[in-house]
Design goal:
The protein has 3 helices and 6 strands. The chain starts with a strand and ends with a strand. The relative contact order is 0.27.
């Protein structure tokens, strides 16, 4: 099963997201029914390489946040219109 290590973030908004993308990172979110949402910072290159695998979209995998594993699936991905860049990703909790 795939595992992806991510960081949490406190800030949100357009200017913060731009600063992340300049540093080869991008924002994401983890949410679910009756769960608190967690704002994430993801490394672009590691996620970009993982998203080339079919399992990234079809199977559940783990997000590792501060040594805690969360079982998730990909809910939505936003991509740049003509560059091969990821802009934002939504993960959904899996029980």
């Amino acid at each position: 099963m795939l595992t992806l290590q991510v960081e949490t973030r406190k800030e949100k908004g357009k200017s913060f997201s731009r600063r992340l993308r300049i540093n080869n990172k991008f924002p994401g979110i983890l949410y679910g029914v009756d769960k608190t949402e967690i704002l994430l910072i993801l490394d672009h290159n590691s996620v970009f390489n993982l998203q080339k695998k079919v399992e990234f979209y079809t199977e559940n995998f783990f997000l590792l946040i501060k040594d805690i594993k969360y079982k998730v699936k990909v809910q939505a991905i936003q991509r740049h219109s003509f560059k091969s860049k990821l802009l934002h990703i939504d993960f959904l909790y899996v029980s």
